[in-house]
């Protein structure tokens, strides 16, 4: 796997997509989604200059964070179980999947106990896909109003996953909808809520996401190759 070559290809595509839509390429953060990949594989991306990584399993993140250099930034994506919150700490740069009240409450109580303020994004199921997590568009405003009352939570933006098997037009439409939602809601002044980030775009659709204003893209397969989820490289390696 030519991770160095893959990374530079992705960076080039980010650059082109940004320029095409009149955006500054440096305003788009590339997260390398390293879930299921071994520490050695993640190290290759590090050696190629990548510093921002995203994981979806707390246990895997815990193992990797101690083995990779300290200047890595770690993001959490994917459903976060409330009973895993106790394993998180300040080494998590951003939780992308705040999607329900019970998680809000658990983060708050853990944050209060341990004096941690959690940086989060609210996950929105913009495609209204029953297979996917996230709040429905019409639920987001009330949720943010609720979150504003929690001292140990900061909401920095919105996150979504594009619909699987959707046409390019539909996908771009979903990303646009999320941007419009953010633009509408950022006008409300709520304490602890500062909607600046839009986490949207993955391997198959990040260029459309950039055209629609994405500030964080989450790319796995285009950097690390296909994940063979049944023989998780990470678990196979004995961890
Ligand atoms: C796995 C995952 C990604 C990366 O997907 P690729 O198709 O490998 O780029 C991005 N976001 C979330 C939430 C994921 O679970």
TrEMBL record:
Keywords in alphabetical order: Pyridoxal phosphate
Modification N6-(pyridoxal phosphate)lysine occurs at: 35
Cofactor(s) in the UniProt record: pyridoxal 5'-phosphate
Domain of life: Bacteria
PANTHER family, A to Z: PROLINE SYNTHETASE CO-TRANSCRIBED BACTERIAL HOMOLOG PROTEIN (PTHR10146), PYRIDOXAL PHOSPHATE HOMEOSTASIS PROTEIN (PTHR10146:SF14)
Function text: Pyridoxal 5'-phosphate (PLP)-binding protein, which is involved in PLP homeostasis.
Protein name: Pyridoxal phosphate homeostasis protein
Taxonomic placement: Bacteria, Bacillati, Bacillota, Clostridia, Eubacteriales
């Amino acid at each position: 796997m030519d991770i160095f070559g893959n990374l530079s290809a992705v960076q080039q595509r980010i650059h082109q997509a940004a320029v095409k839509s009149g955006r500054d390429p440096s305003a788009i953060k590339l997260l390398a989604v390293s879930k299921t990949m071994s520490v050695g594989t993640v190290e290759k991306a590090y050696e190629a200059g990548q510093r921002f990584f995203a994981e979806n399993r707390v246990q895997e993140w815990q193992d990797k964070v101690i083995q990779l250099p300290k200047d890595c930034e770690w993001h959490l994506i994917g459903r976060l179980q409330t009973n895993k919150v106790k394993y998180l700490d300040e080494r998590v740069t951003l939780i992308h999947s705040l999607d329900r009240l019970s998680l809000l409450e658990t983060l708050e109580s853990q944050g209060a106990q341990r004096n941690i303020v959690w940086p989060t994004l609210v996950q929105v199921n913009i495609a209204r896909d029953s297979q996917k997590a996230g709040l429905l568009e019409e639920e987001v405003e009330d949720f943010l109003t609720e979150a504003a009352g929690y001292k140990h939570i900061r909401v920095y933006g919105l996150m979504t996953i594009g619909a699987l098997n959707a046409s390019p037009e539909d996908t771009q439409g979903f990303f646009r909808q999320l941007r419009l939602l953010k633009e509408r809601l950022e006008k409300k002044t709520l304490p602890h809520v500062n909607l600046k980030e839009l986490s949207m775009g993955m391997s198959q659709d990040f260029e459309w996401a950039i055209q629609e204003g994405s500030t964080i893209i989450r790319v796995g397969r285009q950097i690390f190759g296909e994940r063979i989820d049944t023989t998780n490289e990470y678990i196979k390696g004995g961890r």
